[in-house]
Amino acid sequence: MNKPNVLIFMTDQQRGDTVRTQSPALMPHVEKFQKEGVLFSQVHCPSPHCCPARATFFTGIQPSEHGVWHNVNVSNAITRGLADNVVTWSEDLKQNGYQLYFSGKWHISSRELPSNRGWEAAVGEFDPDTLNSYGMWDTYDKLKERPENYQRKPGEIIRKGYPDYVHFGTRENPFGDTGVVRAGQQRLEQLADTTDPWMLYVGTLGPHDPYFVPQRFLDMYKLGDIELPTNFQDDFSNRPNLYERTRSMFDQLTEDEHREAIRHYLAFCTYEDWLFGELLSTLEKTGQAENTLVIYLSDHGDYMGEHGLWCKGLPCFKSAYHVPCIARWPKHIEQPGRVVDNFIGLDDFGPTFLELAGIKTDRHFSGQSLVPFFKNQQPTQWRDAYYTQSNGNELYGIQRSVTTTDFKLVYNGFDYDELYDLRNDPDEMNNVIKDPAHAAVIKELYIKLWSFAKENNDTCINPYIMVGLAEYGPGVGE
Helix or strand or coil: residue 354? Predict the structure, then answer.
């Protein structure tokens, strides 16, 4: 098998369910693309934040090993990039003859650019990240108090002493995503005559909040057709207090404003779909589609009004962790149009790329190759659960979780734990952690959680009396 070219299109903060046929999101290019490839319906990130999720994608290991736990560019970041001695799979590909090109969002390190890891900018040195911490006190020094008779604007969330925040609106070329894709298209045109295998990464920033989208895509949706999620009225009883405190900001929005926000988010997904279609069109026109593995995915999800929440954060609900993933590789993916329901992680892509490139390494990966699924084969051993690792982002809090097809356990080092019976409560509204009927399940899930932690060098195991707060500690299975 010849080494394939690889085209990666990664959006930012896109929910996994937006690419399903039953989704209200209009994504015609993705829908056609899915029929030509394979949809992975249960792909999850390890942490619902850009930096740790992307670091896992680019390394094939968990945050506990790559060392990126939060936004590396904010002023209160504890770490600024990958831990020492961590290798990205792009370096392996570069050393084995691949041409690597990068356009768009990096967000893995504030000390390195993609070029430090084997990539060449698609056009010029294009990288939207800043190597400096985001401004802090100078931002607040410029703030002016609102007048007492100030009227909140539609979509605005008012926080005393904080900068203005408007949740949705219209804007042409939000986040500069059109420029990112155009740079990718130019590189595809330049690659048309090359004989070396190549990989092109195109990383857009949509549909990330705030949800500002081109008007023409917003016009595709009618507000009257937008429905609120079934768990929108969740009262957060028996849940960590941080969850309710987080939602309290969004409680300023009326129900119609929540619907308007959903409308904007869906329109943002449609805009990203259009950009993806533009990229695919160039790939086809340059005659490179047949030997190019194309992957559409995102780094993490978005609550999109579920539980009354938006964006992503420590509330450990599936919608923040579930991401879309579709792969197409003409003549190499068996039975196109299939759906794979196995639990997949962002750490599985590194091993996949190395296998396809014929590269062998004894380096540890927490993920496994997806190649058997391309061949419509079931691997002999595959995970029966997915795990998350979060230490919070700008607000820090230890959190780990394990999810099976039936149950989900969340260990919160900052509050009480959570257990959801997903068979009877798929919307994650009823925390049954204190129900004696689930005592055996809780212990079993804690054993799985700590076993995963041990396998992936997670040091969240301090036995000190003030921090060893889990219902069952790491020694439960010994």
Answer: helix
Q: What is the spatial distance between Cα 154 and Cα 182, in angstroms, rounded to a whole number?
A: 33
3-state secondary structure of 137: helix
Specify burial of residue 72 (Cβ count, 10 A radius: 0-12, 13-18, 19+). Answer: buried
Domains of the chain and CATH, by start: 5-130+170-374 (3.40.720.10), 386-455 (3.30.1120.10)
**114-122 CB contacts, 8 Å cutoff, 24+ apart:** 114/90, 114/201, 117/58, 117/88, 117/90, 117/91, 118/88, 118/90, 118/91, 118/93, 118/94, 119/90, 119/201, 122/183, 122/184, 122/186, 122/187, 122/200, 122/202
Residue 318: left if φ>0, alpha if ψ -120 to 50, beta else—which one?
Answer: alpha
Straight-line distance from the first to the last Cα atom of the chain, in angstroms, rounded to the nearest whole number: 45
User: What is the Cα gyration radius of the chain?
Assistant: 22
Q: How far apart (Å, rounded) are the C-alpha atoms in residues 53 and 67?
A: 11
- Looking at this protein, which amino acid is placed at residue 57? F
How many Å apart are CA 426 and CA 229, to the nearest integer? 12
User: How far is C-alpha 245 from the chain's CA centre?
Assistant: 23
Q: Which residues pair with 103 in a beta bridge?
A: 202
CB-CB contact of 56 with 62 (8 Å): yes
Residues 44, 45, 49, 53, CA torsion sign: negative
Cα three-residue angle 91-95-99, rounded to 5 degrees: 85
Strand order in the sheet with 396-403: 386-392, 396-403, 407-412, 418-421
Q: How far apart are CA 276 and CA 350, in angstroms?
A: 22
Instruction: List CB contacts of 352: < 8 A, sequence separation 6 or more.
Output: 369, 370, 371
Residue ranges in 60-195 assigned as alpha helix (H) = 63-66, 89-95, 137-141, 177-191
Q: What is the pLDDT of residues 288-298, one digit of tens each?
A: 999 999 999 99
Q: What residues does 123 pair with on adjacent strands? A: none
The CA distance from 345 to 285, in Å, is 32
For 335, phi and psi rounded to 5 degrees? 50, 70
Residue 103 · residue 184 · CB < 8 Å: yes
- Give the whole-angstrom CA distance, residue 6 versus residue 39: 17
Distance CA 261, CA 253 (A): 10
Residue 123 pLDDT:
61
Q: Is 432 in contact with 239 (CB distance < 8 Å)?
A: no
Per-residue pLDDT tens over the stretch 79-134: 899 999 999 999 999 999 999 999 999 999 988 999 999 999 876 545 555 545 45
Crossing angle of helices 50-59 and 349-356, in 10° steps, is 30
- Residue 373 pLDDT greater than 60, yes or no: yes
Check residue 435 and report its DSSP letter: -
pLDDT score recorded for residue 105: 93
CA dist 242 and 265 (Å) reads: 24
Q: What is the pLDDT of residue 468?
A: 93
